[in-house]
Structure formats: structure tokens, C-alpha cells
Give the backbone structure.
Amino acid sequence: MIVMRGFQPIAKQRAWSVWAGIFCLLAVASLPTACAAPAPPIIAGSVPAAPVSAPISAPDASAMDNASEQAEVVAISTALSRPASPLRTEETPAAVVQVMLPMILHQPETQAALSGTVSITVSLPLTFAANNEAGQSPLALPTPTLQAPVTAAPVLPEPTPAPTPDGAVRTVRVPVFMYHYLSVPPADANAYRQDLSVPPDLFAAQLDALQAAGYTTISLYDLHAYLTQGAPLPDNPVVITFDDGYRDNYENALPALTQRGMTATFFVVTDFLDEDRPEYLTWDMARTMRDAGMNIESHGRNHVSLKDKDTDYLVWQALGSKETLAYELGVAPRFVSYPAGEFDALTKEIFQSAGYWAGFTTVQGATHSSADDPFEMRRVRVRGTTTPEEIVRLAGLDW
């Protein structure tokens, strides 16, 4: 089958040379080849053109004179008939070749010209013959099978519904300790780095002092369940949290906690983990911490202040970090620690609408009430100068 498309005349003239060219193309396509005579099989999704039994003739002059400047698509198809081949053949899918040819046809009598492009599609069966007398099997090309790659969409975990508050007013003293770095600061560290860094041996001594004083670590989920529904808590509960997700949390904090059977919550900046920043956790580290019983929660996407931001930006922060954590760890975060402790009413509204249960600030305090705003939870800052005795004293304050 030969199809010609797209010829566009620029002058309304008789162009018999066009049809002469078409007959030449038909002749070339009809040359004897090693291919078999039968017509190519119909390919799924295509519509075979009806064969033309009468010879193709040029259009009459009036039809050409009445043609518009943009000629309609011209399609010509013909069945190519050949004598039966003495060779035994076997059909395979047809090869379809399409060629776009620019053309300028000149009519000598009037000096008029026709220009445009001709798209020629030749469809021939790709079949090869073997010697019939030798009784050999015909040689045929394998039928290609094209399959589009299928990538399964990641399946995010089902969200855990927030506990329904029972309406009772409860107050409890549960210090939520706030750490950052857990390493010795470099010699050239600025005042902020010095203040936020707790050396590993001091951290171990703080944990030992808390356990010796009868304190037990709980999770933020335990605290939230008590405030909303009165779920029981152990005596002298405390919560340990880390902001920013530094790598030394994995290297130094995790071993110290697991050795003592204690737990902690780590608020991570998800874009920093995606970017494989060397000073921050990797996702493999975060998964190891999760498997060890630690909680990984949101500290936003890029540690930018969430105060005085518009709705779109806050949605990007809240949902972006949440979905990333859910995808990487299989658990959606329910708590956010506001970067630099900065937030406003819209920040709280957006994070609550995104499915978070509570937000943690840098405001100092250890006593929590179910009557308080859950998105303004207080914490107790631990500094590089906080001694083991001091952390026990802070844990016992009702403030």
C-alpha cells in the first residue's frame, strides 16, 4: 500500500507531471523482491485501504481548477499483485516506511509551479523464502514486541487518625528536652554552635543521671495520647528530642540511647537528607534509627522560618516534608518542630490541616495541659553547659 499525503498547490494549474511521478513510485514499489506476494497482514489498530481495481488516472482539469489553496489530503492506495512465487514463504508483520519529500513541480506551458511536500508510506511484508525443494523451514524475522515500561507508583502508608479528645482537662509535667548537635564543637565554632553542642560523654552522663533519678523516656505519641484521652503514663516521664537531624545524632546519640533502653524523637529537615549533605543524616541512617525504636518527625523541608509565609508556601513545607518522610520511612510524621521556633497562626492552621497533631516550639516550659494549644507545645533547652545535676533539676520543675 502506498499513501501520498500533504501536497499543497500554490497555483491552480493542471499538473500532469505529479501523476507521472506517482506512477513511477508505484512502479518502484512493485519491483520483484525476495519478499512474498501475499498482502501484508492487518496490524491491530489500523484500517486497511480498499484495493483499487481500475487503473489510476489523472484528475480532470475542472477538478484541479476548483481546488483551494490548501488542498485536501490525497490518499491513493492500490493492491500490488504479483505472480505467485514458486518458493514456499511464511509471513511476518509488515514493514512500514514513511518518507517526507519536498517537491517543486514546474509546468512548462504556463511557467506555473506547484510546491509542497509528499509523504510516501510503503507497507511491505517482511517475509523471506527458503528453498522449497530442500524442504527447509522458511527464514522469518522474529516478531518484535514493544512494551512500555511500567513503574509502580509508590504506595504511601495509610494515615493514622488523630486520637479524638475526650474533653477532659488534664495537666501533666513532662519535660520535653531539646538537643541539637551531639558532638564536640570544632575549635573555630561560633557562639551558637558552642551553645547547641553537647559532647557525647556529657550526654551519656545526663542520661545516667535521669535514669538514676527515676525518670523514664516516653514518646510524643504517649504524651499526646495522655492529653487527649488519658492514656496511662509511667512515673516521672520525660521526652528527648533532637532538632535538625545532624549526623552526630546517629553516630553518638543513637548508641547511647539504645544501650540504656531509652528512646528519642528526631526532627529532620527532609531536603537536607534528599541532598545527601555530609553533616546531616542519610535516609538509611534514619531508617536504622526508626528500626531501633526512635521516632522521626518533621522539621520542615529546608529549615526556613515558617512565620509570615503565605498559604502556598506553608502547604509546600507541611505536605512536602510529610510525604517525603512517609515515602522514605513508611510512617507519616504527626509532629512538627518549627525551624528556629518561628511560627504564626497561619503556620499552625496549615500544619493542622495537613494532618499533623501538634507543633513544638522553643518556648521554655515543662508542664502541659489538654486545654492548651497543641500547636504551641513547650520544651526545655539543653545546652553544652548543662550538667547532669542541672538536667535533673530542670526535669523536676513545674513550669
User: Anything to note?
Assistant: The chain has a mean pLDDT of 77. The longest strand covers residues 94-107.
